[in-house]
Write a structure and sequence with these properties.
The protein is mainly α. The chain has three domains: 263 residues, no CATH class; 76 residues, no CATH class; 103 residues. It has a three-stranded mixed beta sheet, with helices on both faces. A hairpin with a 3-residue loop joins strand 2 and strand 3. The longest helix is centred in the middle third of the chain and has 25 residues. The structure holds zinc ion. Zinc ion (ZN) binds next to helix 5 and helix 9.
Length: 506
């Protein structure tokens, strides 16, 4: 049976999440300046901790989806960009101080959506039609607005901790079923028949709130707020004549004339500095264009596109370095290492400054060509130039492991885990380094950490068991295993109880 992509179905979910409100939502008109809440529903919201837990649980399913773009450089650019937006609106993190996570999904729909707990997805097609950073920022800031205003948490309402996993798995299960996911979703969140008008009111008020927060973020972040209007209009235009293909972002985000007018009137009387895009923005888009479709045909299409861009001189054209970078990446994906290197050299030559995107690709070309020593040298010098780049740091550790310098990799990665305590990817890499060094107990302890950090508690407990039974587990390792187990038992008491009951039943 063909697996239905969860990500393709998700916007419907979030649409429903926003529509399925509990009874009693107050739909009084909103005051412009102070962003009032949508009204007291007379019941408790989902707590921030539970909201995060629910988001993590859904993310576990999404991360294994084939349309999830798991790419360090993309993730680094998008999350740095998102942090810039959050910087000016710290309140968005809420009481629980959410670590926001932005990610890209392969999808031809023009859409973006927010999940509970600070997870925001932007679709590849949306990034590709954004002309500049202000336009991309306008969509991301709007989604931040939904989370800041706790729209989904308010819609779901308070739930007991041990209800969250069933809710998340019901949502994910519903999304993978072609048959009526809407009905399953309604079941999942306990929605009963609610007057249509009320749902629409909630949804439109939520959209207006998110617009206002989004606009504030753009303004305070030094972006051009007219990018919001320009982008929404651009999306509307791109839908003309394609009624079946009406951009999903507009479907889930009803863009009434009133809403555009609302934004326009807010920005009319103000003057803004022109935002200057980072040169990385276009490199980011070129990379997305290649990664969105890595099939033979997809790569051929991408190459044609980039070749046209180099020879063209139209208004919305890519910069030459970005087009050449795209050609280099396509060549690498086609295992043409010489071609990749030569296009990369051209791109670097034409660019005004070096970039993480270039440095990362240089290292990837060498590794793919099995020149591990040279790849390590390249990663080392890139790390000097970009000391806080997470993607370069990851390449450096991988290059050490490939060069049989596992011990050095372990020391380096352990230092990194002290800096980035919540990064489960680092723990996965550390497990790889321990495995290369023949340290079995520590390998499984690191894997347990990785699972625990991503919210997968049951596999984390399994890994702790394997670590404990490893023949090389020292007294010191045992103490660390016990400490992590105590910590997990304390933090996930209810969840582990529920798992235990389920196991006993089976
Ligand atoms: Zn929205």
């Amino acid at each position: 049976m063909k697996k239905t992509s969860i990500l393709r179905q998700l916007p419907r979910l979030t649409l429903l999440a926003l529509l399925w409100v509990s009874a009693g939502v107050d739909t009084h008109s909103l005051q412009a300046q102070n962003l009032p809440a949508l009204g007291d529903t007379g019941r408790e919201d989902l707590s921030p901790v539970a909201e995060r837990k629910l988001g993590e649980e859904i993310m576990l399913g999404i991360r294994s989806d084939k349309d999830y773009i798991d790419d360090d450089v993309i993730s680094e650019y998008l999350n740095n960009f998102g942090s810039q937006l959050l910087e000016v609106h710290q309140e968005a993190r809420g009481d629980a101080n959410f670590d926001f996570f932005f990610f890209v999904a392969r999808d031809p729909a023009i859409n973006a959506f927010a999940l509970p707990g600070g997870f925001i997805c932007v679709y590849s097609a949306l990034i590709l039609i954004a002309d500049n950073e202000s336009q991309l920022a306008s969509v991301m800031a709007h989604e931040i607005g939904h989370i800041a205003q706790r729209h989904i948490a308010r819609m779901i309402g308070n739930q007991k901790q041990d209800m969250l996993i069933p809710i998340a798995s019901l949502i994910l299960a519903a999304l993978t079923m072609r048959s009526n996911p809407d009905a399953a979703m309604a079941l999942a969140i306990g929605g009963e028949g609610i007057a249509m008008q009320r749902q629409l009111d909630f949804s439109q008020n939520a959209e207006r709130e998110a617009d206002r927060v989004g606009l504030q973020i753009l303004r305070d972040g030094g972006f051009d707020p007219s990018g919001m209007v320009a982008f929404f209009e651009r999306m509307q235009n791109s839908s003309r004549g394609y009624s079946d293909n009406y951009p999903a972002f507009l479907r889930t985000h009803p863009m009434t004339t009133e809403r555009i007018a609302d934004i326009q009137s807010r920005i009319q009387s103000e003057t803004f500095k022109k935002h200057v895009d980072s040169p990385d923005f276009q490199l980011f888009r070129s990379r997305i264009r290649v990664l969105q479709d890595e099939s033979t045909q997809g790569l051929t299409d991408a190459r044609e596109y980039f070749e046209n861009q180099v020879s063209q001189s139209t208004a919305h054209k890519l910069s030459n370095p970005a087009a050449e970078y795209g050609l280099a990446l396509v060549a690498l994906k086609q295992n043409n290492f010489t071609g990749a290197q030569s296009y990369l050299d051209k791109a670097r030559n034409d660019a005004t400054q070096n970039s993480v995107f270039f440095a990362n690709l240089a290292c990837d070309i060498l590794s793919a060509n099995k020149q591990y020593g040279a790849a390590l040298n390249q990663a080392e010098s890139a790390l000097q130039e970009f000391p806080v780049s997470r993607s370069i740091s990851r390449q450096y550790a991988n290059a050490l492991i490939a060069n049989h310098e596992a011990e050095k990799a372990i020391t380096y990665l352990r230092d990194q885990t002290l800096l980035y305590r919540k990064d489960f990817g680092l723990q996965e890499q550390l497990a790889k380094a321990y495995a290369a060094d023949g340290k079995e107990a520590l390998q499984h302890l690191a894997l347990a950490q990785a699972y625990a950090l991503s919210g997968a508690i049951s596999p984390a407990m399994d890994q702790l068991g394997i670590a404990r039974r490893s023949s090389d587990a020292s007294y010191y390792d045992d103490a660390m295993i016990d400490a992590l187990e105590r910590d997990l038992r304390e933090r996930y008491k209810d969840e582990l109880e529920a798992l235990k009951k389920k196991t006993e039943k089976n």
